[in-house]
Design goal:
mainly alpha, 5 helices, 116 residues, 74% helix
Length: 116
C-alpha cells in the first residue's frame, strides 16, 4: 500500500504531465471548471457499482489523482504565479519537483517539536 509521500509524488507527476500537454489556466473560473470536471469523473466512478470493487477502486484512485493534480495546477497557475510560458515547465521540471517536495510534501512528514 503506498504511503502519503508516494501518492503525493503521483499527483506531482500528473501535474507535470498536464503542464506539458495543456496551457495554463486563464482564470479561476476555468481552473474551477477543470477541477469540477475531474470531480464529476471521480463521482461517476464512486457511483458505478456494476463493476467489481477492485476495478472501481483502481479507477477511483486514478480520478482522485487527477483531482489532486488539477488542484495543484490551480494553485500553481493562479495563486502562486506559475510560469509565463507553460512549455517552460518541461525544461525546469527538476527545480519544480524539488520545490514541490520541499514546500508541499516534506511538511506532511514533519513531526511536531514536542512529539516523541
Amino acid at each position: 500500500m503506498p504511503n502519503a509521500e508516494a501518492i503525493a509524488r503521483e499527483i506531482a507527476n500528473e501535474f507535470y504531465r498536464a503542464c506539458t500537454r495543456f496551457p495554463q489556466f486563464n482564470s479561476g473560473h476555468e481552473g474551477y471548471a477543470v477541477i469540477l470536471e475531474e470531480m464529476d469523473e471521480l463521482w461517476t466512478e464512486v457511483k458505478d457499482n456494476k463493476r467489481d470493487y477492485l476495478t472501481r477502486r483502481r479507477d477511483m484512485r486514478a480520478e482522485a489523482i487527477q483531482v489532486g493534480a488539477m488542484a495543484l495546477r490551480f494553485i500553481y497557475d493562479l495563486c502562486d504565479g506559475g510560469n509565463e510560458n507553460p512549455s517552460e515547465v518541461a525544461s525546469e521540471e527538476s527545480a519544480i519537483k524539488e520545490r514541490l517536495i520541499h514546500d508541499l510534501i516534506e511538511p506532511l512528514f514533519d513531526k511536531p517539536e514536542n512529539a516523541g
